[in-house]
Amino acid sequence: xxxxxxxxxxxxxxxxxxxxxxxxxxxxxxxxxxxxxxxxxxxxxxxxxxxxxxxxxxxxxxxxxxxxxxxxxxxxxxxxxxxxxxxxxxxxxxxxxxxxxxxxxxxxxxxxxxxxxxxxxxxxxxxxxxxxxxxxxxxxxxxxxxxxxxxxxxxxxxxxxxxxxxxxxxxxxxxxxxxxxxxxxxxxxxxxxxxxxxxxxxxxxxxxxxxxxxxxxxxxxxxxxxxxxxxxxxxxxxxxxxxxxxxxxxxxxxxxxxxxxxxxxxxxxxxxxxxxxxxxxxxxxxxxxxxxxxxxxxxxxxxxxxxxxxxxxxxxxxxxxxxxxxxxxxxxxxxxxxxxxxxxxxxxxxxxxxxxxxxxxxxxxxxxxxxxxxxxxxxxxxxxxxxxxxxxxxxxxxxxxxxxxxxxxxxxxxxxxxxxxxxxxxxxxxxxxxxxxxxxxxxxxxxxxxxxxxxxxxxxxxxxxxx
Length: 467
What we know:
Helix content is 14%, strand content 17%. The chain has a 15-stranded parallel sheet with strand order 8-9-10-11-12-13-14-15-16-17-18-19-20-21-22. Strands 1, 2, 3, 4, 5, 6 and 7 form a 7-stranded antiparallel sheet that branches. It is built from 6 helices and 22 strands. The chain has helices at residues 81-93, 119-139, 146-151, 215-222, 310-317, 450-459, and strands at residues 9-10, 23-25, 38-46, 62-67, 70-78, 100-105, 108-109, 142-143, 158-160, 181-183, 204-206, 230-232, 253-255, 276-278, 299-301, 325-327, 348-350, 371-373, 394-396, 417-419, 440-442, 464-466. The radius of gyration is 24 Å and the shape is globular. It has 467 residues and is an alpha/beta fold.
């Protein structure tokens, strides 16, 4: 079952690896950017929306990730803004209400706080302030253009070779003796070269969207890198995760989104230094017994793993010594098992886009839990048990069917941030005067008359409210 706001779309810039971002609203007057090294993409984000197969296929659509309850998509790669605007218009004609263009200069996403400024100002910004930022990225060692990077190999620390139609890894990467990060996202690599382990300073490797790569061979070579800490292997249609993954003992972050993994090998438990693990969109039903060996794991992503045994999962998670953040977005969950009360280190619980209407009594043991996301759960009233969380300071209830909060529950005296975006609030509920310490309230997308907005402001004079 899906969120009630399938077609509510906004446009957003999103990056897998750290980078600068430039966004602009193409609904204003268009303008051509005069820089030859500028490229354009349309990027969108949806609260709960999946493009059907073939949708915008000719533009090379890529599902990027999920973040805070949003699906992220990237569409197209254009040399001029007019092509991007054409794509934006196609989206509008297909019922998508808005679209943004993301601008790259010399392969670097340029960020600029664009609000009421016209697109003409965008051109001036690229010419002035943001080109300085491109140069700053180069000074920091980030390069996307291989030819440019080869001119000063000693300065190269991060090399982004994503979406360059590579069938093999370029030769002589060993010339980049200070290389720490390399990203091969969106290519067609078959094998990593035999000399790949000679890149001894590599800490981050991106191999996402290379579905024809020999992953068994790749992991064997990656295991020889002495300082590898982050590995990205999403969008690879992987059904089997090689047992050799356990050899990457220095890993702190492993991301395996959008694969078809049917079973997680026990060897995953050998990654004792792992701090963040992403296993979203898999087909496995259980976490391995060795999972409890991940004593340093702080954050786990288990989004859209609809075949996951929730009881067994929480038994395994409750044995982790350091877990702070659990993402269980879109898993068709209808309840939380009582074993959740044993995860006493938990600080943030993401249960967005499920069907949960209550939490077990045992959540009262979660003294470190301060943030809960229950957006998109078809809630018509506040979920029972939410009031038992002793130190709850942030509650996300966006995209539900709420007309009242907190109702008989509460008093929620420690609540500082409350998100009620896209609900059915039409009047200020009686219980709102209980929220004495509320600092931020999001009511966007509710049909509130001005008179009720004024009541909210009077009731919560020290709270920042968004309507």
